[in-house]
Write a structure and sequence with these properties.
- It is built from three helices and four strands, in the order H-H-E-E-H-E-E.
- It is α+β, with helices and mostly antiparallel strands and 151 residues long.
- The strands form two sheets. The chain has a two-stranded antiparallel sheet. Strands 3-4 form a two-stranded antiparallel ribbon.
- It is globular and about 55 Å long.
């Protein structure tokens, strides 16, 4: 329910054109697929930024987002390898995360034209540093697989 309200707020802000109706003014084009994908991504990033990132050890941390990996896709979130948050933080927003992921997938954002993509973005290695979940390293799809720089 909260996710729908947030998504509705995001989409209404995308469609708002300063007219009285809250929708596109006559003659204005609806938002492009790129704009819709960017709106979902911004809302997702704001949700993650506000989530709990506190930890006592690495086991308290997890990754959200990260659709890119090594498949030359666009990603959902701030970092292509994933955004670190606490396990408790993820549990508190799991329904909202699933809603944004479903919207992202329904729009086809991972392969949408003009949405930035990356091919070399392996999974993140996360840890708890100074009581906060952080990415400490990202795995290269090509170098770590021996594709680039191999003798």
């Amino acid at each position: 329910m909260v996710r729908r309200a947030v998504a509705g707020l995001v989409l209404s802000s995308v469609f708002a054109c300063g007219g009285g109706g809250g929708g596109p003014a006559a003659g204005d084009a609806p938002p492009s697929l790129l704009e819709q994908c960017e709106a979902v991504d911004r809302a997702f990033e704001q949700l993650i930024a506000a989530a709990d990132h506190a930890c006592a050890g690495a086991a308290d941390c997890t990754i959200v987002g990260a659709t890119a990996r090594c498949g030359c896709d666009a990603w959902l979130g701030d970092r292509c390898e994933g955004d670190p948050i606490s396990v408790a933080g993820r549990a508190a927003i799991e329904t909202q995360l699933a809603g944004y992921r479903a919207e992202w997938d329904q729009l086809g954002c991972a392969r949408a034209p003009d949405v930035p993509r990356v091919c070399d973005c392996g999974p993140a290695i996360i840890d708890c540093v100074a009581d906060r979940c952080v990415v400490v390293n990202a795995v290269s799809c090509f170098i770590d697989a021996g594709v680039v720089g191999a003798p």
